[in-house]
Design brief:
Shape: globular
CATH superfamily of the largest domain: NAD(P)-binding Rossmann-like Domain
Largest sheet: 7 strands, parallel
Protein name: SDR family NAD(P)-dependent oxidoreductase
Order of helices and strands: EHEHEHEHEHHEHHHE
CATH architecture of the largest domain: 3-Layer(aba) Sandwich
Oligomer: single chain
Structural class: alpha/beta
Strand content: 5-15%
Strand order of the largest sheet: 3-2-1-4-5-6-7
Family: Belongs to the short-chain dehydrogenases/reductases (SDR) family.
Amino acid sequence: MDLNLKDKVAFVTGGGQGVGRRICLDLATEGVRVAVNDLFAERADAVVAEIEAAGGRAFAAVADITSEAGVHAAIAASREALGDIDILVNNAGVPVERREKGGAAPLFLDTTTEGWARIIDLNLFGMMHCCKAVLPGMKARRHGKIINIMSEAGRAGEARLAVYSGAKAAMLGFAKAIAQEHGRDCINVNVIALGAVSHEGIAEGALHPSATPETNERLGKMLKAYPIARGLQRLARPEDVSGMVCLLASDRAAYITGQSIGISGGLVMI
């Protein structure tokens, strides 16, 4: 299927590893010029190098998206390097703090306001900063695609992840509102909800790509929560997500907006 994405320009937050990296690589394969945003320059540079080695065009847009000024500077630099932003993928997110490696996250009453701020600043304010920076240009050109990557915790709620669930739910509510405000401008806004994803950015444990149900007891237990994982005997991988991002970024999805699509193996069925 030709998605007709050649020479479009995408800005992908958290693009330096994991799901974000795969989104950047697959968009580039479709001919998209990709601004790879990450807090860490070495990560962004590495993904840019991968894309350029494969013949694509990319730019390392290093910025802390919790800074409104930083976001606007990164978007301006990306526009100068690659052109106007057609596609925004809000992928950056902060992991939930665990009491100890592999242990449970604390109950809400045991959390601190400092911890809340860290989660909300990145997952919610960071996403809003990016939207505010690209929407004027999309509106002027009457074309744009915004895709938020959230967690199924935001659609269903999850004990011990109250603030995280709330921030992710806010991403969905925000996306629906912006989809309504800017439908008249031909701007599509959608959300992809994820469960656990195994990727190279995780050092060890059940989510490391090398883990199997035979070698990791916790992974074996996790697979039982995902209907399709029981058959596939694996968790989601970045490439399970990136294909949907490419589709939603294309005009093949011109009539899809304000929707949440679960790529979580049936963990949540809505």
